[in-house]
Amino acid sequence: MKSPCTTHSLTPLKSKANKMGETGGGKRWNFGANEVVELSCSQNVRYFLNLLADNLDRNDSRPVIPLGHGDPSPFPSYRTDPAAVEAVCDALRSAQFNHYSTTSGLPIARKAVAEYLSRGLSYQICPNDVHLTAGCHHAIDVLISTLAVPGANILLPRPSYPMYDSRAAFSQLEIRRYDLLPENGWEVDLDAVEALADDKTAAILVINPCNPCGNVFSRQHLQKIAETASKLGVLVIADEVYKDITFGETPFVSMAEFAEIVPVMLLGSISKRWCVPGWRFGWMVTLDPHNIMKDSGLVHSLANVLNMSTDPTTFIQGAIPDILEKTKEEFFSSVLETLRECSESCYEEIKKIPCITCPYKPEASMFTMVKLELSVLEDIKDDLEFCCKLAKEESLIILPGRSVGLKNWLRITFAVEPELLKDGLSRLNKFALRHSKKKQQP
Ligand SMILES: Cc1ncc(COP(=O)(O)O)c(C=O)c1O
What keywords would UniProt list here (predicted)? Predict the structure, then answer.
């Protein structure tokens, strides 16, 4: 049987792939692995999920419990609203959306997204400022490619959603990391932000509600972030893919409210709130009342990158006005109620597990970060070994904290069916007890 963590995914590039100019079978070929790609993708969630999947014991007849990623769509409690499905079917049946998209998306879809995002805001978003993308991931690709001019740098949170790190590394955009502070409810360390930035800092990323920490920023804190960014002359990238997925005390406030203070690039999608990540529909919105982004040329470059890129499928764009308009409020409230129940049972069960602590009760998104107390464990040296052994012995997938930037922490997804979560946390508890140091007899 393979021992944990010795899978092909950890094999160094040199031994598994031809380097350019080396020979294969005696003949010289002029292509090979791209080391920049290899280095950038070693920082993303899929890389670690594949690694953990390789450690699963195929002889374990129990179902694998996936607490490693945020996609609850396969579970009955999170099935999307029939009205959204109907909207897609209608768009397809109409045969009006089989054509290529226009740059930035179909006008009807841009208008619908502008109206949706303006609900509850103190002003109306203009449809021309909305650019449609194939999920939020695509918006990240486009935006990071646009910002990656030689010498520029970007401020990313630690911990973070690692796609930004991978994408920036791939585009050779320098990454500077500021901390989110667990002791302050995972708020931004604003002093660190000021110390990190210089005149080559293009942007700061703010993920709110937060993946991976499960917190949501207060209005006051968002304002302070906006003021700091304005003082430093940097753009705020507001990733609001978990917009409105909050179930605690703190209400969600959009960074859009602070666009008067600092230019904001608002990113989002229907993936999480509608539980349909496979539909690949998202957006990027330039909130720029003082034309700062426009006059700097950024908006023009963004449109050019979009021109070189793919589009969300046209039939999803055709369906989006009905998806946004007709989805029943009961669907959203039922999903939020399930998430609230799951987050609470996750928090309570974690308290009973000897080697992990949760510094902050999650109140948003689909995740929580917990700290590993390695000193109480007998035969586990770090977060990666913990997760590999957990996958192997308990068929339970949890992400090692290093995958989101915090070594010796874990990121746990609670967005699964409640019964499955209970089973997963009980397996985690058994595993932790089995690997804990045995108490000395007096
Ligand atoms: C913070 C964050 N941003 C962006 C994305 C990507 O979203 P999408 O599925 O719409 O591409 C995710 C997905 O997990 C995420 O957690």
Answer: Pyridoxal phosphate
From the CA of 384, how far away is ligand 1's center (Å)?
Answer: 23
Q: Is 214 in the pocket of ligand 1 (CB under 6 A)?
A: no
Instruction: Specify whether the CB–CB gap between 263 and 229 falls below 8 A.
Output: no
Q: Is 211 in the pocket of ligand 1 (CB under 6 A)?
A: yes
Indicate the SS3 state at residue 98: coil
Q: Is 393 in the pocket of ligand 1 (CB under 6 A)?
A: no
- 3 state SS of 80: coil
Distance of CA 349 to the CA centre of its chain: 24
DSSP line for 69-138: S---TTSGGGPPPHHHHHHHHHHHHTT-S-SPPPTT--HHHHHHHHHHHHTTSSSPPPGGGEEEESHHHH
Domain ranges of the chain: 58-81+329-442, 82-326
pLDDT of residue 20: 54
Report whether residue 365 contacts ligand 1, using a CB cutoff of 6 Å: no
Query: Which residues, in sequence order, are bridge partners of residue 412?
Result: 368
- CATH dotted code for 82-326: 3.40.640.10
What does pLDDT average to in each consecutive run of 10 residues of the chain (442 residues)? Answer: 42 48 75 86 84 97 96 98 98 98 96 97 97 98 98 98 95 97 97 98 98 98 98 98 97 98 98 98 98 97 95 98 98 98 97 94 98 95 98 98 97 98 98 89 60
Please tell me if the CB atom of residue 160 comes closer than 6 angstroms to any atom of ligand 1. Answer: no
SS3 state at 88: helix
Give the pLDDT of residue 12.
41
Overall pTM surpassing 0.85 (yes/no): yes
Q: What's domain 58-81+329-442's architecture? A: Alpha-Beta Complex (3.90)
Phi, psi of 131, rounded to the nearest 5 degrees:
-120, 125
Closest ligand 1 atom to Cα of 271:
10
- DSSP, collapsed to helix, strand or coil, labels residue 368 as strand
Q: What is the pLDDT of residue 6?
A: 40
